[in-house]
Amino acid sequence: MKKRYIIVPALLVVFVIGIFILSTATKTSTFYFEDSYYNSNETQEIELDELNRLIDTQETFGVFVYQPLCVTSSDFEEVLNTFQEQYQIGFKKIAFSKVKNSQAAEFLQYYPSFIIYKDGKMVNFLEANKDEDLQYYQSVEGFKDWLANYVKLEPKSASIQAPNNTSSSENQNSQEQDLAKIEVGLENITKEDGKVNIYFFWGNGCSHCKQEFKFLERLQKEYGDKYNLYTFEVWYNDENAKILDVFAAAMKEDVKGVPYTIIGSKSFYGFGNGSEQQFKAAIKDQYQENNDIYFDKIKKYEVVSK
Fold it and tell me: Using an 8 Å Cβ cutoff, are 259 and 200 in contact?
């Protein structure tokens, strides 16, 4: 009997020591990304085929999974961009809609996320719906602390040269020039006297957009004779996303997410407390002014039309 009481505590001690050694070894077994990712602040947009190629060739890298025109994705991307400027580590980037039907979907259910691959195998990823992961999304230091558990932040050799990157100002100028070439075939839009056009840009799966839709349904009963509503889903419709770019440029606004709503000459970003009264006030103020962003501004752009 005495031997049994001695053996059980001894086994527990061995078990605890084993767990400690294993966790310590895991914590210290960090690895390098491929050399090309160091001394670089480049985020390269990739397609699913390229992601599969990187996995098949057993590369070691990190990939930012985002949803276009999602505010949370945009906020996290700003954290990643600042991290890259400070630590000079490049990443890949892919839209969630492009991976949701891939092998990654087996473990990745929410966005935004960041996945670490080692030799083509997923090591870990951030979970947007996990409370303990929120700290890693909110700051550069938080993300660095998480990434450094797995990846060495310093390159193997100081001789690694950074690739030549196009400056952000050049990219911005190029994007502004491209806006003038976007086709905005909106033949269904009309301009009526005594009515204001409402342009509502939304994303399929966006909770705030869903709230705004419900409000607009209620609004129809009271103000339906004062406006025409045009809606554009932009997360999964590339053409509508281009239209959003044109409308935002005409409003001289940098729109990073939806919902985004234009009522006459006024615009609203997001939908929350106070939005309903603001929308009603804008309709009352604008419906007789006959101002319209599409007819009065966008059609004056040198836009290619069919």
Answer: yes
